[in-house]
Amino acid sequence: MGREKSRRLSGSRDFRQRLVLATLTSTPIIIKDIRAGEGGLRQHEMSLLHLLDKVSDQHVIDVNDTGTKVGYKPGVVLGGKDLEHDCGVHRGIGYFIEPLILLGLFGRSPLSIRLKGITNDTKDPSVDTFRMVTLHMLKHFGVPLEGLELKIENRGAPPRGGGEVLLRVPNINSTLKAVNWIDEGMVKRIRGVTFSTNVSPQIENRILYAARGLFNKFIPDVHIFTDHRAGLSGGLYVSSLK
């Protein structure tokens, strides 16, 4: 890691946040005692390091043989286009989208990357949540919606995945605006999506009608769309936005 003073951390907690904050603040870090005696870094954490390597330059990533210690010296977030990354099947694509959005905003050039893996599971935020909620929230912080896109090209459910999304993040030339949200407002309408892979569309329709019937007890303006696709694994999912 060189002679530059590094901040020393311990344990596997907040692994993504540590890497993102270290990158944005150009602070070298050393994380030790990562699941000592339990195999060290998990496969999805190693995949995250590989992803960081693809969008950055002039950085140093050093992992010991047991995977219990990581040294990271941040470089420059380049962004880039036509990038591709296989997220694996141990965590959802949402696990990787969160840090990518934060890093992409401060890259030297806009980011365009294709991510493959699981689009919807119970561990991580779904790609629908990012597309319908997170990206729209960013405009309140001064991020232009032009060039900010998450396109779902294929759905992927556990355990085999097979999903594919295209993420585009613009780089910003100024600092983000501070936001003070103290009023949650009233629920005026509900939008949502149901998706299914490798199951009968009739089952998806039954879920749609059941969800709509539940929401209509509280508000009349409810629209839930369907997205039935072929996939490597069977799955059903409902995502709603209020």
Describe the structure.
- The protein has 242 residues and is of the alpha/beta class.
- Among the domains are: 1-77; 190-241, Dihydrodipicolinate Reductase, domain 2.
- The protein has 5 helices and 13 strands.
- The strands form 4 sheets. Strands 1-2-5-4 form a 4-stranded mixed beta sheet, covered by helices on one side. Strands 7-8-10-9 form a 4-stranded mixed beta sheet. It has a 3-stranded mixed beta sheet with strand order 12-11-13, sandwiched between helices.
- The radius of gyration is 20 Å and the shape is globular.
- The N and C termini lie far apart (47 Å).
- The relative contact order is 0.12.
Q: Quick gist of this model?
A:
The chain contains five helices and 13 strands. The protein has helices at 15-24, 43-55, 94-105, 127-137, 201-215; strands spanning 7-10, 29-32, 56-57, 60-63, 70-73, 76-77, 80-86, 111-117, 149-154, 163-169, 190-197, 222-229, 235-241. The protein has a four-stranded mixed beta sheet with strand order 1-2-5-4, with helices on one face. A four-stranded mixed beta sheet has the order 7-8-10-9.
